[in-house]
Amino acid sequence: MESAAASLKFQPSPLARSLRTRRTLTVGFVVPDVSSPFYAAALKGAQRRLGQAGYRVLLMDASLDVERELAALETLYAHEVDGLLLATAGISAEALEAAVSTTPTVFFDSVADGAGDGAVILENARGTGLLLEHLVGHGHEHIAFLAGSQRETSGVERLQAFRASGRAAERYIRVCEWSIGDGRRAGLELLDDPQRASAVLASSAELALGFMAAAAERGVRIPQDVALVSFDDPYFGELLEPSLTAVAYDACLVGERAAALLVDAMSSETDAREVRVPVTLVTRRSCGCDG
Predict the structure, then answer these.
(1) Which residue, among 203, 128, 122, has the nearest Cα to 164 in the 3D structure?
(2) H or E, element range at 56
(3) C-alpha–C-alpha distance, residues 48 and 44, integer Å
(4) How far is residue 103 CA from its own chain's centroid?
(5) How far apart, in whole angstroms, are the C-alpha atoms of residue 215 and residue 104?
(6) For residues 11 and 115, what is the distance between their CA atoms, to the nearest angstrom?
(7) Among residues 258, 148, 138, which one has the least CA distance to residue 198?
(8) What angle do CA 186, 187, 191 make, to 5 degrees?
(9) pLDDT in tens, the chain (291 residues)
(10) Domains of the chain by range and CATH?
């Protein structure tokens, strides 16, 4: 399986676009995990924009599995959807082409390098940098990193940014699946290290929650013993104990902008574009701040 690439190269085919003639006014929306608040919010944003253009949405859940993702894409192609919005769990460009042929496709959050008619992605490197700079500002020198799946763009780009910072010690890096359970597993490993890091940067809210569970299990206090920050600001982040310092963004905007790119791709021969959605730092108590 090919990893999602951080460098995006789109190769839309003018000939393929010329073959798109029949319209059903439906769009397929495929996500790795339909229960995720991020994908639910992205769906709302996409539906708003697509509804304005007269399209209905067919939602498919890949269950974090590339084979299920392929099956979902093949089903949508068989139903002759006019376009696809796809947050891939790790599909290759070749597999996508084989599954959906000439159907206009826009990626969001996670892409297949060399495929599609555009993509909407978070400012992954900038968000990781904001969190790192904040921890360094608190005086932390040994910072651990809970990296997300390296099959997905967000996981790849956040880990690349952490390693490029010059503050990355491989002993403190753990690559995880995007789940609370795997965050707990990796968190226990980090906390059991005799030379434990003084701070942890989690690549997602799920991984941050997993680390909090591991800290509670080991009797480690956050932030007194170990500081914690997270990429993703969940709606309940302020209610956690301690409240979670995180990078925040508008997930609805991700879906809305991806849908706008797709509407353009379905209606005209436009060049593929990459759009980055901005992120901001929200400081609370898990890092040692008073907020």
Answers:
(1) 128
(2) strand 56-61
(3) 6
(4) 23
(5) 46
(6) 6
(7) 138
(8) 120
(9) 344 443 444 444 443 443 445 689 999 999 999 999 999 999 999 999 999 999 999 999 999 899 999 999 999 999 999 999 999 999 999 999 899 988 999 999 999 988 999 999 999 999 999 999 999 999 999 999 999 999 999 999 999 999 999 888 899 999 999 999 999 999 999 999 999 999 999 999 999 999 999 999 999 999 999 999 999 999 999 999 999 999 999 999 999 999 999 999 999 877 789 999 999 999 999 999 986
(10) 14-120+250-276 (3.40.50.2300), 124-248 (3.40.50.2300)
DSSP for residue 3? P
Helix (H, G, I), strand (E, B) or coil at 251: helix
Residues 26 and 59: beta-carbon distance below 8 Å: no
Residue position matching structure tokens 């890096």? 173
Q: Is the dihedral of CA 64, 147, 171, 180 positive or negative?
A: negative
Tokens of 290: 């008073």
**Nearest CA-CA partner of 229 in 121, 130, 123:** 130
13 burial (CB, 10 Å; 0-12 / 13-18 / 19+) is exposed
Tokens linked to 114: 């060399």
C-beta separation of 89 from 150 below 8 A: no
Instruction: Find tokens 């084989």 and name the residue.
Output: 98
For 10, how many CA atoms within 13 A lie in the half-sphere containing its CB? 20
* Cis bond before residue 223 (omega within 30° of 0): yes
How far apart (Å, rounded) are the C-alpha atoms in residues 120 and 130? 20
**Residue-wise over 84-117: b if at least 16 C-beta within 10 A, else e?**
bbbbbbbbbbebbbebbeebbbbbbbbbbbbbbb
Take residue 266 and report the two structure tokens written for it. 């379905």
Burial 147-156 (b: 16+ CB within 10 A, else e): bbbebbbbbb
Token output for 236: 């309940």
